[in-house]
Amino acid sequence: MQPGIITVLADTAVRGHDLDEAKAIAAKEAAEEALKNRTSDIDYASAQAELSEALAQIQTIERLRKSTH
Predict the structure, then answer these.
(1) Using one digit for the tens of pLDDT, what is the confidence trace for 4-61?
(2) Rounded to the nearest 5°, which phi and psi values hold at 39?
(3) Dihedral, CA atoms, 9, 15, 21, 23, nearest 10 degrees?
(4) Is residue 25 a contact partner of residue 63, using CB atoms and an 8 Å limit?
(5) Is 54:10 a contact under the CB 8 Å cutoff?
(6) Are 64 and 16 in contact (CB under 8 A)?
């Protein structure tokens, strides 16, 4: 970070207008179901990561919606 400049390093990025709310909600629900029916630690970690990503997308969509209205 520098005054007036922030650099973000990431492996991937998605533009806000490319987010699909229906897909994010479906992914959230699938991850929640996987967490309920977990069979191993690997499945749990994967489902936890998918849930976090879906929640972040939903929050971003909500923020974009508020900023454009």
Answers:
(1) 899 989 888 888 888 999 999 999 999 998 888 877 667 888 889 999 999 999 999 9
(2) -120, -15
(3) -70
(4) no
(5) no
(6) yes
Contact 36, 62 (CB under 8 A): no
State both tokens at 17.
């207008």
Predicted confidence at residue 34, as pLDDT, reads 86
For 17, phi then psi, to 5°, come to -75, -10
The reported pTM is: 0.72
Closest alpha carbon to 67 in 17, 21, 22, 18: 17
In 3D space, the residue among 7, 8, 49 whose CA is nearest the CA of residue 31 turns out to be 49
